[in-house]
Design brief:
transmembrane, membrane, 370 residues, L-PG_synthase/AglD, mainly alpha, 16 helices, transmembrane helix, 72% helix, globular
Length: 370
Amino acid sequence: MTRAPEREVEPRPPGDEHDDDDRGLEFTTRSVLTLAGFLAAMILALYLLLPQLAGLEDTWERMRDGSPFWILVALAFALGMFWGYIEMFRGVFSKVGAGVIGRTESYLITMAGLAASRLFAAGGAGGLVLQAWALRQAGLGRRVVADKTISFLVLTYFPYAAAVLICGLGLRIGLFPGEAPVAMTLVPAIIALIMMGVAALILLVPTDLQRRLDGFARRTGHIGRVAQKLASIPAASSAGLHDAIAHLRSRDPALLGAIAFWAFQIAVLWAAFHAFGDPPPLAVLVQAFFVGMLGNLLPIPGGVGGVEGGMIGSFAAFGVDAGLAVVAVLVFRALTFWLPLLPGVIAFFKLRARVELWRRERGATIQSKA
């Protein structure tokens, strides 16, 4: 079994094709105002109309009666969530971006990515695109970015799958207290187990599968070349999984950021419930949180409403008071989803300035070698 070795930043000449990678990332005043107006309308609809449609007219009254102390505690947990995500990113990318991707760069890239994932829906795809662009501008090769991004995603979402499996089965067999509807416990646990099995099978794919298909591509012409290109997907996935395992074996404490990222989010939700009443049992809180987060995969403009609806529905399925779930989830989303938007936009513009610095440094390095 082969595993792609660590690859360092490779200087690239200024003016090559990668310098134009950011054309789709330009912000104009008109586009920003249009998007801001649309998001404002969506937020008003979500936070004002949802309680009315749900027959929960006392929602805002309940929010006004919430505990300021517990909301401040939730805010502190939200800051811990962002810290965990930044440290996780630094732990994965700092080695291949030695001297380029440090803590400051990790903050700029991750916060800008979080803002992009808020503005563009579908499971945070906008954030991944922006992160890939920034890493390419930092000098990392395409395959390095692909492998490391998969590694980052695997390390980030493995705690997600493990929690769904443990809490789902634990609730279903009565190991943990709380209601245990099949659709919210056993079904997600089975899906998580299947995904883990698929990941284990992908590990068997050679990371240099494309190279091994060179001869086949030459013999079969167009069909072989298409097959070779398609092979890049399982090959990169395998390389990313192997890289994730290598990171775990290194015992880098920065990788604890993945656990902190999820644990602090759950802590925010727990504190939000405390602000307005009593939280559900811990296993129910964790399971409803993760099942509800699947709403983030819905291609809803701005990502507004999918997770809120999914999470509130999940808590309702577990028998949690609907009014309490609505106010807790809305506060949770305000702190974890909307809070990073402004600092994320600021980070984006600072990141663009850092990209220009990287380009000038690459140009100076290449000229000095000429």
